[in-house]
Amino acid sequence: MLANGVSVTIVPLREVPLVAFCAVLRGGARGDSRGKSGLAALVAGLFAKGAGERSGFAFADALEGAGGSFNATAAADHILVSGQFLARDQALMLALLADALLAPHFAPAQLEKLRNRYIELLKAAKDSDPAELLGSYGRAFLFHGHPYGRPVTGSESSLASMTQRDALEYYRTQVGADRLALVFAGDVQVGWLKKTAARAFGAWRPAAAALEPIPVPRRVRKRRVLLIDAPGATQSYFWIGANGVDRLYPRRAALDLVNALLGGRFTSLLNTELRIRSGLSYGAASAFTRGVVPAEFAIRSFAQSEHMVQALDLTLATLSRLKREGISAEMLESARAYLLGQYPLAFETASDWAAAFGELEAYGLTPQYLEGYGVALRDATLADAREVIAEAFPAPEHTVIVLIGAAAKIGARLSQYGSVTEMTLSHPSFRPPRAAARRPLTRATAATRVRSAK
To answer: Is residue 133 part of a domain?
Structure first.
């Protein structure tokens, strides 16, 4: 731990002459200012677009010349900068990382180019693969008014308004030594790395703003529906979301075992019902996103529009059956064998180890979080499974349902699930406009809106 608050973790692995790094900056998208969602992602993307004495081109040229990698992304709770270099290039790796974090340029031309690229990627996803955006729509609807409801990568409207001043202000207030954890794994020169990291980062200033505590999101009490109208779409994509659990949830192993059975593997209950038995979809999955505070539990799938309601009913019935009947001892043993076989695969490379220890730093976890997981998987019982089903998995009536599809085909049938809010896929935000109808759609009104859009 350096005097200014930077933590440095070193994991020597001598098998391959590579060194991976992971730099965690706590805060991330939760530090985006109001109306500026995507700002943390834009700042992260600019770290390698010119820093220190190198222009954007020179930075990229140095990376390419060494065969190294450098990636910076934002998440809800942190910014993550990661990469990998040959062991002989450790000095260059550390120099580039220090320049990127301590002396980024935030050049206006680079900012405008990257901002426009993010906007075009969002538009392209709407045109070619709207399912990519389901999570952003879902979290905005589920966590309305909460930091977790902001789209991490921004929306067309929020990105369009961003300026160099916004990036500089985020960097000044949200990025600094007191937020930073460094992890290096691989064929490292330990003594040299300690001294060089201390010299490079030891005098860095703290972030100007304190890391604000994040509130626990309000729980869903009554089911509601968001329909994102995509006129002419033949497929409908749906996302069923609810409040989940946080990163410190004590029954993590039992939670993972039950989720593997529900929607975390190919032979899961959801995939069996929606793909194998009924043929309604090519796949369905469920997952928990566990943040500093409870984030979401979500189920996602898709179907032909004419079969969407049948697929949605079957999904909700499968979740209801899990809540009502639980799982059997045989099912638990099957999930246990699956996860025990999968877990070691997450620790095969230096990059894997850097990422794993980066996660510990991001959420204030101890190494026991990694070391004790296999034991916890082996020790989990049916009683543990019953507890997590009761407390962590939602009842179907305590969910939100988000769909992307043609309102003319599916809108009139959605009121059976709860109050319906409609917006268009072309709307430049992930939140419905304030004037959006919050009433069940009729077949006539849906058709009228489609004709108006045309």
So the answer is: yes
Structure-block tokens of residue 205: 């200033």
Whether the per-residue pLDDT at 442 is higher than 90: the answer is: no
Q: Which pair of tokens denotes residue 38? A: 């995507």
| Domain termination residue (choose one: 167, 201, 235) | 201
| CATH code of 345's domain | 3.30.830.10
Task: With cut-offs at 50, 70 and 90, classify the pLDDT of residue 454.
Answer: very low
Examine the domain organization and report whether 33 and 102 are in the same domain: yes
How do residues 154-212 score in pLDDT, each as one tens digit? 999 999 999 999 999 999 999 999 999 999 999 999 999 999 999 999 999 999 999 99
Does residue 190 share a domain with residue 318?
no
What is the predicted pLDDT for the residue at 436? 58
Asked if pLDDT for residue 419 goes beyond 90, the answer is yes
Shared domain check, 233 and 184: no
Of 201, 235, 260, the residue that ends a domain is 201
Count of structural domains, the chain: 2
Whether 228 and 361 share a structural domain: yes
- 219 falls within a domain: no
pLDDT digits (tens, 9 = 90+) for 227-257: 999 999 999 999 999 999 999 999 999 999 9
Do 233 and 192 share a structural domain? no
Please check whether residues 347 and 393 belong to one and the same domain: yes
254: which residues sit within 8 A by CB, 6+ positions away?
380, 381, 384, 385, 387, 388
Q: Assess contact for 292 and 246: CB atoms under 8 A.
A: yes
Residues 196 and 235 both lie in one domain? no
Asked, for residue 237, whether it belongs to a domain, the answer is yes
Q: pTM for this one?
A: 0.92
327 and 413 co-located in one domain: yes
Domain of residue 179, residue span: 7-201
Percent of the chain at pLDDT > 90 equals: 94
Residue 450 has a pLDDT of: 35
- Grade residue 449 by pLDDT with cuts at 50, 70 and 90: very low
